[in-house]
Amino acid sequence: MSQFQFHILGRGAIGSLWVSSLARAGFNTTLIPRQLDCPNYAINYISGTETFTQSIAQQSPEQIEAIDILLVCVKSYQLEQALNSVASRITDTSTVILLQNGMGHQQLAESLLPQCQLLVATTTQGAYLSNDGLHHAGKGQTYLGPADNKTTIESSTFTMTRIPQLCQALNEALPDVIWQWDIQKRLWQKLAINAVINPLTALYRCKNGELLSNFEYRDHLQLIINDIQKILEKACPEQDWTNLSEQVNQTAQKTASNVSSTLQDIVKGQATELPAICEYLINIAQNNNIAIPQYKKLYAQVNK
Ligand code: KPL
Hints:
By secondary structure, the chain is of the alpha/beta class.
């Protein structure tokens, strides 16, 4: 039996995917809902022809003594409230993993939970919730690394105790999980992909793959990639962005049947993570006098 005890914040698609995968792999897994509605939460997992139902224990923060491993799968705009709700259960032996789209969350988490070991993760797993359950629509990778931005073992104050076993456990539950010292690089790549796919799928109300199969959307996709590439070349010059188009196309292909997280939010009438994704990049463009007319127009259309 694993040494780890997992708690998960967030019952959206990615939170549900992690919860059901960890519980199915036999790990001690508990959900922390925003409001404790019932002691157990049933998730109906659907992937191709495979389906199974998983019953997950739920606890309110008051019922938890101390948190061992916390996966934070809430939306970027819910992060502050979610972390505050569990802060008193986080100790100096807790490991907290942030899984938000966009940028700027690490700083917030560092200030709210200075005592814990903070990790950041980014995933290309495609998942969405519908009336019949949780659809695992595209298998992908999850990259995990230290939030403290130290990129080598030698220069890091980061302690590796338990990290290899933690990666192994996560990998057993929902492969592939890959440790990455330079997680910032992956975060920029994910930001770039979300900055293109998410607002476009929101505009056209389409699944990710339709951005490639529909000629009109595909032309628009390329114009948006051109604008985003200009911003990234300025904001993150240490990376090569010439293959951005290829990276976006690959993700759209791999998650073709997925409904982007932004479109899911819009359909549910919820707030989206677009400010943490698009506005973050638009601000960089504005501060550096980079002309991105297509992108600004797109953002204005979807952020009404
Ligand atoms: O991360 C995603 C999202 O929807 O937020 C992608 C990779 C675009 C998959 O849908």
